[in-house]
TrEMBL record:
Localization of this protein: Membrane
Species: Saxibacter everestensis
Keyword match Transmembrane: yes
The protein's name in its UniProt record: Succinate dehydrogenase hydrophobic membrane anchor subunit
Keywords, comma-separated and alphabetical: Heme, Iron, Membrane, Metal-binding, Transmembrane, Transmembrane helix
InterPro entries cross-referenced by the UniProt entry: SQR/QFR_C/D (IPR034804), SuccDH_FuR_B_TM-su (IPR000701)
Primary residence: membrane
Membrane-spanning ranges: 25-48, 68-86, 107-131
């Protein structure tokens, strides 16, 4: 019976094998960069919503309506939503790739992940850009009190 050839212990290791794909490198880089940007976005969000204002008790429908009246805050919240979802999706994709043993299981889990992510990103984007606290023709008893001044 032939024994397999074992490399000599001090023969070295070829670190330049092409074992990594460009996609994985980009995903790794995206995680690092998006993490840095997310820290800035999230702490800015917390500072404005909790510390600079009157705290949690001031956050209500009117606060969000006033904040989203500005395109700056719409873009801020949109970036936070997209980056958080893409960052989390990429992390879950890595976990699925690492722990799902069968190819079919891996494929179905990733498909569910991508669909859920896409739905949340699309719905969140629609909410941010179509949010109207004072819809025309709405029953005055259900709209906020600040809409009557308009």
């Amino acid at each position: 019976m032939a024994t397999p050839a074992i490399a000599k212990p001090r023969s070295g290791y070829d670190r330049h094998k092409n074992t990594r794909s460009g996609v994985e490198l980009l995903a790794w880089l995206f995680m690092r960069l998006s993490g840095i940007v997310l820290v800035v976005l999230i702490f800015g969000h917390l500072f404005v919503n909790l510390w600079a204002g009157e705290g949690v008790k001031a956050i209500d429908f009117g606060f969000v309506a006033g904040k989203w009246a500005s395109p700056f805050w719409q873009i801020w919240d949109l970036l936070m939503l997209w980056l958080a979802m893409l960052h989390g999706t990429n992390g879950m994709r890595t976990i699925i790739s690492d722990y799902a043993e069968r190819d079919s299981t891996r494929m179905w889990l990733k498909l569910c992940l991508y669909v859920a992510s896409a739905v949340i990103i699309v719905l969140g984007t629609l909410v941010i850009f179509t949010f109207d606290p004072c819809p025309a023709g709405a029953d005055p008893s259900v709209v906020p009190s600040f809409c009557e001044a308009l």
